[in-house]
Amino acid sequence: MGSNQQIGKVAADHVRIVSRRMIKPPSDSEEAVNIHLTPWDLCLLTIDYVQKGILLPKPPAGGVGERLVDTLASSFARALGKFYPFAGRLVVEHHDGGTVAVLLRCTGEGAEFIHAVAPGVAVADIIGSIHIPSVRRSPSSPTARVFIGMSMNHSVGDGTAFWEFFNTWSEINRGGVDLHEVRTPAPVHQRFFIDTSPVPIRLPFSKLQDVVRRFERPTVQECFFTFSAASIQKLKARANSETATTGAISSLHALLAHVWRAVSRARRLPPGQETSHSLLIGCRGRVRGIPQGYLGNAAVFGKASSTVGEILDKGLGWTAWQLSRVVASFDEAAMADWLDRWTLEPNFVYAGNKLFGGAGAAVATRSSPPRFDVFGNDFGWEKPVAVRSGPGNKTDGKVTVFEGGERGGTMSLEVCIAPDALQRLVSTRSSWTL
Q: For residue 93, which phi and psi values (nearest 5 degrees)?
């Protein structure tokens, strides 16, 4: 495990940047394309970038060094041709009445591609200590394994868009395929607005800096737990046996309920204290007008609340059912009402929000649901051996869910909580990780 302060120190001490270049997507047109941002996009202007990466095996002889970097840069450019907004720039436009609008201007300016080496970082530093070098798109030196990471402004896209780009990039690099042959669904660049929404949305600020706040974040430590398919099935069976409706609890909700209860114990919270578990509900395919290939942010927060005593005393099944009810109660009309109200009274997500995992939230799960094809990112020399996330948005109570490296129903959890609580959680892992 490693703290968020340790991550930055290790990166600064051990990472050496070899080169930087701006990669531009191939384009036959220099005409600017403006993409107006939705409330889902705009409310995330105030949080950290999406930061994820994969650790790959050492490439075969002859495919390392600058040759590898150039190959990755070439396939990266071709992937940007399909996901051209990722090569754009956020632009602030000033309007009458002391208002501003933020839009994504796509002129093909490019995305930064950094080649770095970390000779002092071992594989164990990434897999064992949960440390991720804070560099982007960074193949390592010829004698080491390769870590490829990306960061993306969260207002540009969500985890689904992030990993679909990653899948496209790896497929192009792996097989040298043309863009029309890529299996990833074609991205839909047009953003979703309800009929009553103004476009663009004008924010009631004279300058964007008025909404950007920096919080003093408490120290958190992180650890990585992997649950086998068999252990998850046991949890699911147990949860369903404790509920009246057979089969109503999914594997994911059974696991998240299990973690919610374990973290509450590790925090030694009093029985009467309220605790909440926030999770993201995806809108692709669930909301009319938002297709599977939608490139922007398309998810809403749902929150289950209870007391610590209730989730511990009433059992796994009852706790998992609270999470299932949150997802089942998703209401498109309520979602549209929130979008409408946001344009009139904008409110932004901050790392200190309880919904986002601030003080008082025992667990807040979001990012990288196990449905993402993380371990399918074979760049041409075997599939990833690990996935990790960067230091951004790591708050007390955040749990990130990934598919397990063995796939087939395994899941891995990256847990971030206060150091003392994490120490207790790790010390009892034999009893709660099954």
A: -110, 135
CA–CA gap between residue 328 and residue 202 (Å, rounded): 33
DSSP state of 221: E
Can you tell me the distance from the alpha carbon of 422 to that of 3, in angstroms, rounded to the nearest whole number? 11
CB atoms within 10 A of CB 375: 19
Q: What is the pLDDT of residues 99-113, one digit of tens each?
A: 999 999 999 999 999
**Dihedrals phi, psi of 250, to nearest 5 degrees:** -80, 165
CA angle (5 as vertex; 275, 425 as ends), nearest 5: 40
Q: Enter the tokens of residue 132.
A: 């991720």
d(CA 367, CA 301): 11
DSSP letters spanning 317-379? HHHHHHHHHHHHT--HHHHHHHHHHHHHS-----TT-TTTT-TT-SEEE-S--TTS--TT---
Distance CA 81, CA 186 (A): 11
Residues whose CB falls within 8 Å of the CB of residue 135, separated by 6 or more in sequence, listed in order: 11, 15, 17, 114, 116, 149
The pLDDT value recorded for residue 354 is: 53
- In terms of Cα–Cα distance, which of 146, 181, 152 is closest to 165? 152
Which 8-state DSSP code applies to residue 224?
E
Greatest alpha-carbon span in the chain:
63
Is the separation of the CB atoms in 134 and 156 below 8 Å? no
- E runs forming strands in 65-187: 89-95, 99-106, 111-117, 146-152
Tell me how far apart the alpha carbons of residues 86 and 78 are, in angstroms, rounded to a whole number.
12
For the segment 310-356, what is each residue's pLDDT rounded down to a tens digit?
Answer: 999 999 999 999 999 999 999 999 999 999 999 999 999 887 665 55
Residue found under tokens 């095996």: 57
Does the model's pTM come out above 0.85?
A: yes
Question: What mean pLDDT comes out for the span 222-238?
Answer: 92
In terms of Cβ atoms closer than 10 Å to its own Cβ (0-12, 13-18, 19+), residue 376 is middle
